[in-house]
């Protein structure tokens, strides 16, 4: 920042406060304030201060009228511009598009209700940066309506950018609970949050790396498999993809859905078999432990799956984990059942009825879900039980075994396993959406359209976060050195040496503190933008000064190419 005299031919020179910086080989400048009308002594004092001279106490020279957190706003809006999301949302500048971008950014900074959003974005530079300081709650709802009306167009642009013919597409479904009674989408269904509330179901499509491309909202009583046909239609008709490979979990791409996929044509699939189907393969001797003597995975065949490939996998670590977990649950169940046995035995004068005992036993069985491994004997005034050892051994035989099912004939077995395990990237989206970062739940919005727009907005916020996480990987607890394309397909990936260092020392190789994404964003927010004015002249033009970045902030901005 410096004071510059600009000559004028027939009048006195213009005196400007300017800032210069370098972008590549180009030096750029911008004018911060016109100082022409300032007294000479004030201009000279400012010039000397900017050169680093100390004249008098700063608080007697300048007044800081306002200081607002800015660094996280700079990082988010800069990322939105760098990845072109602003152009995807609207090719031309529009206030409604600025409102949408502001809501996306605020979702990352202060996830909250729309009313709270209009309050909180004044606590940072966000509202000023996007010129939405005067927006109220009603205007945000109007912006949500606009966003929903443009969802198809925006998703098509995202698909054009991230998907192409022959690519893999990951798909998964989750739900979030709803507060209130007004939205028709809110229904009782498979409640993953275990809140006992009405829920809303939504499915997310991503590319092979987990970058979100599209989201669809369904009523809460919608079964996961029934959404697959809708997604195939979206991929084929709306996105114009002639051939893709859809990756989904075993509860999603079922045999029924596969038959529907076959009828469409051009859609391959990678999924997994349910435990019951794996048990049948074991009983038919298609799967034997000797398959895994040399490798942790092997291709098998079965007449029940004509024209398909089956890849059987065995993970000894997973097997040991499941065995230990089962034993813990069995022991916990037995402890509670023994208490019931003792209670029944003590009630000799007023014996418990069969129904009363059954209610107590049922509560224990439902709590630990181990009922299939016990043989129960319940009578009036009597209760006893034994372990069903045959049932336990039957389940133990499947510990650590899973089978990948696919239509693809040219992809290697190891890659098929890796592609299926990439579904964990979609699960990460759901954790982020529902967790501390974006807080999609609980959903309070009343109308169907606003609920749909809200979830789409959260998806776009994660789209920004996904790109930021990738760029900021050296500064966060993320193993950026692991090669996910060549890692062992079955065994858990071994952390790289850099990841071990991060975890142990909590420092980067550069000696900087390692953050989570949320704490790094908060730290960026400590970089403030100050509005300043000459203390002795209230009418003097204001100018802005940013606090100097910390080493972490400086590196973060560099990684984000800002």
What does this protein look like?
This protein is α+β, with helices and mostly antiparallel strands and 562 residues long. Among the domains are: 162-313 and 402-434, Transposase Inhibitor Protein From Tn5, Chain A, domain 1, CATH 3.90.350; 318-396. 42% of the residues lie in helices and 19% in strands. The chain has 21 helices and 16 strands. An eight-stranded mixed beta sheet has the order 7-6-5-8-9-14-11-10, sandwiched between helices. A three-stranded antiparallel beta sheet has the order 1-2-3. Strands 4-15-16 form a three-stranded antiparallel beta sheet. A hairpin with a 2-residue loop joins strand 2 and strand 3. Helix 3 crosses helix 5 (95-109), helix 5 (95-109) packs across helix 8 and helix 8 (137-149) packs across helix 18. The longest helix has 31 residues, at 316-346. The radius of gyration is 31 Å and the shape is elongated. The mean pLDDT is 87.
């Amino acid at each position: 920042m410096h004071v510059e005299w600009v000559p004028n031919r027939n009048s006195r020179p213009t005196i400007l406060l300017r800032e210069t910086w370098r972008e590549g080989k180009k030096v750029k400048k911008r004018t911060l304030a016109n100082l022409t009308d300032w007294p000479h002594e004030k201009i000279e004092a400012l010039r000397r201060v900017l050169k680093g001279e100390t004249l008098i106490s700063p608080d007697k020279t300048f007044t800081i009228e306002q200081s607002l957190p800015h660094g996280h706003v700079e990082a988010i809006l800069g990322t939105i511009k760098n990845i072109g999301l602003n152009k995807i949302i609207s090719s031309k500048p529009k206030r409604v598009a600025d409102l949408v971008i502001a809501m996306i950014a605020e979702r990352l900074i202060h996830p909250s209700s729309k009313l709270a959003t209009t309050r909180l974005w004044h606590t940072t530079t966000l509202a000023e940066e996007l010129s939405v300081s005067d927006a109220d709650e009603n205007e945000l709802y109007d912006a949500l309506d606009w966003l929903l009306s443009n969802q198809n167009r925006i998703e098509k642009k995202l698909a054009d950018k991230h998907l192409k013919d022959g690519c893999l597409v990951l798909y998964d479904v989750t739900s979030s609970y709803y507060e209130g009674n007004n939205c028709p989408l809110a229904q009782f269904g498979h409640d993953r949050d275990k809140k006992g509330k009405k829920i809303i179901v939504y499915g997310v499509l991503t590319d092979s790396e987990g970058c979100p491309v599209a989201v669809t909202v369904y009523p809460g009583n919608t079964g996961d498999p029934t959404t697959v046909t809708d997604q195939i239609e979206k991929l084929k008709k709306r996105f114009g993809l002639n051939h893709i490979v859809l990756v989904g979990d075993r509860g999603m791409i079922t045999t029924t859905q596969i038959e529907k996929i076959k009828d469409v044509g051009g859609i391959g699939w990678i999924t997994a078999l349910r435990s019951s189907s794996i048990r049948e393969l074991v009983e038919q001797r298609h799967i034997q432990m000797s398959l895994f003597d040399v490798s942790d995975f092997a291709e098998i065949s079965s007449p029940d799956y004509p024209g398909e490939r089956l890849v059987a996998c065995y993970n000894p670590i997973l097997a040991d984990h499941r065995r230990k977990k089962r034993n813990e649950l069995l022991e916990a169940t037995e402890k509670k059942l023994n208490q019931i046995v003792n209670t029944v035995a003590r009630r000799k004068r007023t014996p418990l009825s069969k129904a009363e005992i059954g209610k107590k036993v049922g509560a224990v069985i439902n709590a630990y879900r181990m009922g299939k491994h016990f043989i129960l004997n319940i009578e009036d005034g009597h209760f006893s039980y034994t372990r069903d050892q045959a049932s336990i051994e039957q389940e133990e035989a499947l510990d650590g075994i899973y089978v990948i099912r696919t239509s693809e004939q040219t992809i290697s077995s190891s890659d098929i396993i890796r592609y299926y395990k990439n579904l964990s990237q979609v699960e990460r989206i759901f954790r982020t959406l529902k967790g501390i970062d974006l807080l999609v739940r609980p959903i309070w919005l009343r109308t169907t359209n606003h609920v749909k727009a809200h979830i789409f907005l959260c998806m776009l916020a994660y789209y920004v976060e996904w790109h930021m996480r990738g760029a900021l990987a050296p500064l966060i607890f993320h193993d950026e050195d692991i090669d996910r394309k060549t890692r062992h397909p079955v065994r858990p990936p071994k952390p790289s040496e850099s990841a071990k260092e991060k975890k142990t020392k909590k420092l980067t190789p550069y000696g900087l503190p390692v953050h989570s994404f949320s704490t790094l964003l908060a730290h960026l927010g400590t970089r403030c933008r100050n509005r300043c004015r000459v203390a002795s002249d209230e009418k003097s033009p204001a100018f802005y000064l940013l606090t100097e970045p910390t080493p972490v902030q400086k590196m973060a901005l560099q990684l984000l190419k800002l």
